Amino acid sequence: AQTVTQSQPEMSVQEAETVTLSCTYDTSESDYYLFWYKQPPSRQMILVIRQEAYKQQNATENRFSVNFQKAAKSFSLKISDSQLGDAAMYFCAYSPTPNSGNTPLVFGKGTRLSVIA
Amino acid sequence: EAQVTQNPRYLITVTGKKLTVTCSQNMNHEYMSWYRQDPGLGLRQIYYSMNVEVTDKGDVPEGYKVSRKEKRNFPLILESPSPNQTSLYFCASTPPGHRDTQYFGPGTRLTVL
Questions:
Q1: Which of B41, B48, B100 sits opposite A95 (nearest CB)?
Q2: Of A46, A24, A25, A26, nearest to A36 (Cα)?
Q3: Which three-class secondary structure string do you get for chain B?
Q4: In the A/B pair of chains, how many CB contacts fall below 8 A?
Q5: How far is the C-alpha of A96 from the C-alpha of A104, rounded, in Å?
Q6: Do B98 and A98 touch (CB under 8 A)?
Q7: Residue B62 three-state SS
Q8: Of the candidates A8, A80, B77, B110, which lies 20 to 30 Å from B46 by C-alpha distance?
Q9: Closest chain A residue to B108 measured between Cα atoms?
Q10: Measured between CB atoms, does B47 come within 8 Å of chain A?
């Protein structure tokens, strides 16, 4: 079974600085998807960024970027120029390819990010 | 506006009193899921549905039922709730051809006393 591990339960960053959240996963599949979700105090699950495993280029969305190391099964999230609104719980998630059948998201346990003004 | 809605958003109930959490999407999605979120455990899939009248168990289905009589609705049913089902519940749906992208509802905070 696939597993996702986030080894940092809590992180903090100064406003305007850069922070990297770690994620590792385990799968025997060669094709899959990886995601970072943000959960602010409102509890809404917000998709931050997604990466397709067959694409070697790291995904980027504005201040958010990933470092995808397929061989190492590592998928870290870098937040640049951190803002107070970035404070939230961040979840790393894995999904098998949607060829057919169930495509559940497998989530890590989350990293709580605090942003210090 | 494309969205997934859940009701109620908050519910406090007592052990054994049947309840239903509704989930509705207006995007004509076929694939829908229910997840529960517990501290330190992340989100885990309870049930999923590939299409109308097609449902199956996820990782933690015990104590739950679902139905899918219409494409837009996917209610989660707790026939006899117990305190260990106190959790935050999310419904999610995915568009056909883009099953890697899940749209989440706003969540339902359930407390079973």
A1: B100
A2: A46
A3: CCCEEEECCEEEECCCCCEEEEEEECCCCCEEEEEEEECCCEEEEEEEEEECCEEEECCCCCCCEECCCCCCECCEEECCCCHHHCEEEEEEEECCCCCCCCEECCCEEEEEC
A4: 59
A5: 7
A6: yes
A7: coil
A8: A8
A9: A43
A10: no
Distance separating alpha carbons of residues B44 and A38, to the nearest angstrom: 16
Tell me how far apart the alpha carbons of residues B31 and B11 are, in angstroms, rounded to a whole number. Answer: 26
Q: Is the pLDDT of residue B97 over 80?
A: no
CB-CB under 8 Å, B99 with A52:
no
Closest Cβ opposite residue A50 in set B43, B58, B100: B100
Closest to A4 measured CA to CA, from A19, A27, A24: A24
Per-residue model confidence as pLDDT tens digits over B31-82: 999 999 998 888 999 999 988 999 999 999 999 999 999 999 999 999 999 9
